[in-house]
């Protein structure tokens, strides 16, 4: 994939892995657009990278996904890369019953429905460009699930499956379909839950994750697992129990 001179939309690009991807794409000479819910985070990102475009959208709502597509079509009709990066991660204890689901954000809407709907919205536009790409950010937990985060893991497994099908559906179009599979990355994704669970290791940096992913995109590595996620991806097919126990040793 040519990684210069593109127009790139990165959902959730104001923080964490998304923000590190912004750096990679801006430094390589691409025009970058980001969106997210928190205006202060979008403003901070714009201060760091003044050339980027920012807009507030809450992708858990279907009407905001439609509004994002409308805005991009009007303002950036040459958009050729969509990066579905926005996501949330929540610990959910099903032993507490339905109440535990009522008090949390909807991971299914943000992590799964949003990328699927955005793909559907943007594919007609992306197909009109000479070379284009959809890049879905899944997780090693989509391959070996976390017991503490069952819904999160399920959304990422489903997004992986969707990405495999989409890649085949679009094989005769100009759209390349990538999947980035990060391992544990030290960002604000879990809002301090890792510490509460007694973990002492918080993962690799978002900068390393973005750098390696960017290089993989450049080399057309369509399903790219970063760092330890490589073990989870292959382990899911070979030593599932061993990896499952190792990944979930903190669960009580
Ligand atoms: N960190 C890890 O260990 C890890 C591992 C594997 C995969 N990943 C995946 O990597 C991606 C990025 O996560 P991260 O680790 O960089 O965490 P992060 O810093 O929390 O980034 C998530 C981004 O998504 C945005 N977002 C969340 N809900 C949104 C919504 N409803 N509408 C629009 N934007 C929304 C957030 O901005 P607002 O809150 O302002 O909306 C934030 O900028 C996620 O898909 C995550 O599942 C992370």
Features:
252 residues, alpha/beta, Rossmann fold, seven-stranded parallel beta sheet, 10 helices, 14% strand, binds NADP nicotinamide-adenine-dinucleotide phosphate
Summed up:
The chain is an alpha/beta fold and 252 residues long. The chain is 45% helix and 14% strand.
Structure characterization notes:
- By secondary structure, the protein is α/β, with parallel strands linked by helices.
- It has one domain (7-247): Rossmann fold, CATH 3.40.50.
- Helix content is 45%, strand content 14%.
- The protein has 10 helices and 7 strands.
- Strands 3-2-1-4-5-6-7 form a 7-stranded parallel sheet, with helices on both faces.
- Helix 2 (39-48) links the parallel strand 2 (31-36) and strand 3 (53-56).
- It is globular.
- The site of NADP nicotinamide-adenine-dinucleotide phosphate has 31 residues, from helix 1.
- NADP nicotinamide-adenine-dinucleotide phosphate (NAP) is lined by residues 11-12, 14-18, 36-38, 41, 57-60, 85-89, 110, 137, 139, 182, 184-185, 187-189, 203, 206.
- Residues in helices, as a percent range: 40-55%
Termini separation? 44 Å
What is the string of SSEs from the N terminus onward? Answer: EHEHEHEHHEHEHHEHH
Query: How much of the residues is beta strand, in percent?
Result: 5-15%
CATH topology grouping: Rossmann fold
Shape: globular
Query: What is the β-strand count?
Result: 7
Residue-averaged pLDDT: 95
**Main sheet: strand order:** 3-2-1-4-5-6-7
Number of domains: 1
> Which structural class fits the helix and strand makeup?
alpha/beta
Fourth-tier CATH superfamily name? NAD(P)-binding Rossmann-like Domain
Unreliable runs, pLDDT <50, ≥5 residues?
none
User: If helices are DSSP runs of H or I spanning 4 or more residues, what is the number of helices?
Assistant: 10
Can you summarize the main beta sheet? Answer: 7 strands, parallel
CATH class: Alpha Beta
What integer value in Å does the Rg equal? 18 Å
The CATH architecture can be given as 3-Layer(aba) Sandwich
Bound ligands, each once? NADP nicotinamide-adenine-dinucleotide phosphate
């Amino acid at each position: 994939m040519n990684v210069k001179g593109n127009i790139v939309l990165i959902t959730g690009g104001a923080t964490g892995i998304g923000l590190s991807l912004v750096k990679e794409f801006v430094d390589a000479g691409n025009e970058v657009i980001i969106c997210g819910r928190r205006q202060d985070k979008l403003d901070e990102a714009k201060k760091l990278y003044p050339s980027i475009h920012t807009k507030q959208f809450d992708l858990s709502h279907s009407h905001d996904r439609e509004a994002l597509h409308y805005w991009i079509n009007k303002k950036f009709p040459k958009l050729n890369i969509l990066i579905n990066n926005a996501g949330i991660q929540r610990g959910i204890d099903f032993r507490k019953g339905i109440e535990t689901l009522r008090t949390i954000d909807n991971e299914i809407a943000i992590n799964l429905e949003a990328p699927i709907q955005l793909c559907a919205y943007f594919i007609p536009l992306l197909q009109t460009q000479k070379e284009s790409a959809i890049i879905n950010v899944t997780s090693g937990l989509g391959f070996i699930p976390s017991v503490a985060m069952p819904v999160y893991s399920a959304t990422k497994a489903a997004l992986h499956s969707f990405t495999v099908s989409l890649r085949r559906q679009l094989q005769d179009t100009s759209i390349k379909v990538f999947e980035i599979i990060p391992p544990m990355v030290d960002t604000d994704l879990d809002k301090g839950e890792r510490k509460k669970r007694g973990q002492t290791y918080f993962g690799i940096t978002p900068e390393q994750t973005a750098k390696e992913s960017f290089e993989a995109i450049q080399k057309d590595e369509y399903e790219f697992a970063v760092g330890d996620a490589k073990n989870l991806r292959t382990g899911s097919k070979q030593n599932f129990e061993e990896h499952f126990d190792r990944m979930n040793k903190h669960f009580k």
